[in-house]
Amino acid sequence: MNNPITLTLNADPLILSALREDITSEDVSTNSVTPEKQMGAADLICKEDGIICGLEIFARVFTLLDPGTHVELLAKDGDAVTKGQLLAKLTGDIRTLLSGERTALNYLQRMSGIATYTHNVASLLEGTSIKLLDTRKTTPNNRLFEKYAVRVGGGNNHRYNLSDGVLLKDNHIGAAGGVRQAIEMAMAYAPFVRKIEVEVENLEMVREAVEAGAHIIMLDNMTHEQMEEALNIIDGRAEVEISGNVTKENIEKIKDLKVNYISSGALTHSSPILDVSLKNLHPID
To answer: Which listed residue (47, 89, 131, 137) is catalytic?
Structure first.
């Protein structure tokens, strides 16, 4: 997220939208207690151990409200942080610090929570060659931030959106009339640089997918025994992804399988936030 082009073109409009959601006309509370410009300072404090992520987005919230705000970051994305650690110092118009506080913390807490959870899950795959992937199960209008947080936590991104790759799921297969038909139609339509991935739910679908030439076969919600048999059928003729309710609690049970990827929607839709807080706000000369 440290690319200024990415920040300006993609992140800024989303951040501004979030700020407009929180300030429709004015910040009544802040304007009540600080009617005139008053310079102030505040500290960003970590309240629990984890992996920090989203510091530049946190800072950007305040500088979009007022370019004169200064945020001194004392950590960087991906750092392991501890309870009580000072993460940043802010100086600027107190009205800006107060009005941007919640939006900035929302981004930072959410992104850090995803990075922390992803780090914990990825650590369970250490010693294997399996890549941990996220999914499109992201918060609307926050995918950019959430998928970035997965990378910071040590995971990998699956396709970013529907334009990014071909993934034929159960309803695509139903619409096409079968696994083979769906794969053949995708190969005829999609650009040749695109890999064709297909989601399968049973061994017959595995056989069809292999015979039709799928590049990646996703084993969805299969038992361990079924996945072992599926791998025998595939026999190296396609890359293999495991998916379906994969969490930190059960990933150990499947990491012995010789697959290329394990995807988990839980990385983005079920990770708890990491608690951080803006404290010690006070006027300065």
So the answer is: 137
One of 3.20.20.70, 3.90.1170.20, 2.40.30.20, 3.75.10.10 is the CATH number of 4-117+272-283, namely 3.90.1170.20
Contact 109, 271 (CB under 8 A): no
Instruction: Show the 3-state SS of 73-136.
Output: ECCCCCCEECCCCEEEEEEEEHHHHHHHHHHHHHHHHHHHHHHHHHHHHHHCCCCCCCEEECCC
pTM of the predicted model as reported, rounded to 2 decimal places: 0.95
Report how far residue 148's alpha carbon sits from residue 131's, in angstroms, rounded to the nearest whole number: 16
Selection from 235, 216, 222 nearest residue 158 by Cα: 216
For the question of residue 137 being annotated catalytic, the response is yes
Widest CA span of the chain, in angstroms?
Answer: 74
DSSP 178-220: SHHHHHHHHHHHS-TTS-EEEEESSHHHHHHHHHHT-SEEEEE
Strand 261-263 versus strand 239-243 pairing type: parallel
CATH number of 122-269: 3.20.20.70
Domain ranges, ordered by start, for the chain: 4-117+272-283, 122-269
Whole-angstrom CA distances from 231 to 24, 49, 180, 259 are: 55, 39, 19, 8
Structure-token match 């799921």, residue found: 169
What span, in angstroms and rounded, lies between the C-alpha atoms of 52 and 116? 7
**Which residue has 């529907």 as its token pair?**
162
What are the C-alpha distances in Å from 133 to residues 85, 87, 262? 30, 28, 6
Count other Cβ atoms within 10 Å, centred on residue 128: 14
Ordered mean pLDDT values, 10 residues apiece, the chain (285 residues):
75 96 96 96 98 97 98 98 98 98 98 98 96 97 97 97 95 98 96 92 98 97 96 98 93 94 97 98 94
